[in-house]
Amino acid sequence: MTDQAIHGNANHPGNANHPIDGDVDNPEHVHHHIITPTQYLFVYLALIALTALTCAAAFVDLKWANPVIALGIACTQVVIVVLFDMHVAYQSRLIKLTIGAGFFMFLVMVTMTLTDYMSRSWGMW
Amino acid sequence: MDSALATTDPAEVHAEHGHVSLPQHRHHFETAEQQREAGSFGMWLFLLTEIMFFGGMFFSYLIYRNWYYPAFVVASNQLNVTIGTVNTMLLITSGFCMAIAVWAAEMRKRPLLRTMLILTALLGVIFLGLKSDEYYEKYELHHIPGNNFNISMFTNPAGYGIKEPPLSPDMAQRTQVFFFLYFAMTGMHALHMVIGLGILCWLIRRAHRGDFTAGYVAPVENFGLYWHFIDIVWLFLYPLLYLINRHPLH
Asked: In this predicted structure, what is the pLDDT of residue A123?
């Protein structure tokens, strides 16, 4: 990779294949989906609104529902970020499956460790 | 077969395969699409190890919160919820700028890419500034776990004008567990941000040079994944550390 090659390309940003409507053709003929700024804006507003909601909900006494709501909102926000900001919704099945397997593996480890903690003090809580 | 082995000049090899030769395209990938896929895949594998790393801390939080719940509630309520909420909004805004930066790189908008990367970094710096202010307050109150930890605020909250139930000295000591986890988790999160800011400086320099606005967006895109991952960790830290129980004695 030479500097000349990079600058050569940068000096005439390829308008021959100007991006259209959320999809782009790179010179190497790669066609992939691109999320538009409007979509990012909606994602951003949703995340801000959910943050305000989780903060407000914490100041109301909802008994056992407080942590459930807080975690539910956090999980919703994370799913939105992963799917859209991190483009997973438009990735290949291989990548989707790998991420799913990773989270599942984490849950398996949490469950198994929790089983140990709970069974050791059985009847003492 | 013979000719393929004999040819070592990259240009000739490319010509033989009928590829479009671009500076960023490595020859061991069949297509640029495959190269991009492999890059994203590798980045996600790295992020999954990060999830395991932070996951361990979240798990110990879960166990200790159940064991020492009263201590966790009172200690959590000593955190500044306004700064915590503002910081959450700052990180979300920083993530939005990063997302727009990736879009700008794809669309080859060099000035916009540069502006968005700088904004991403700037919001990150403000986040760390507010965080250090919070750390300093804990230092002044002797709420950093260790020999100088002071439990009097938790055994005698009324004396400090705090509307909380007083804790027994034993349970008050357990607030150290909360603050240990608080510093460990937000500290590791902050360290990830500091590393991210370092990479951002390098990206801004290269973006300024025009490296990422000529069809080569992988570094910006993969850094975006890392930056959004930091967001994700904070989206869990915020409710778990700041909002355990914000309505005491009601």
From this structure: 73
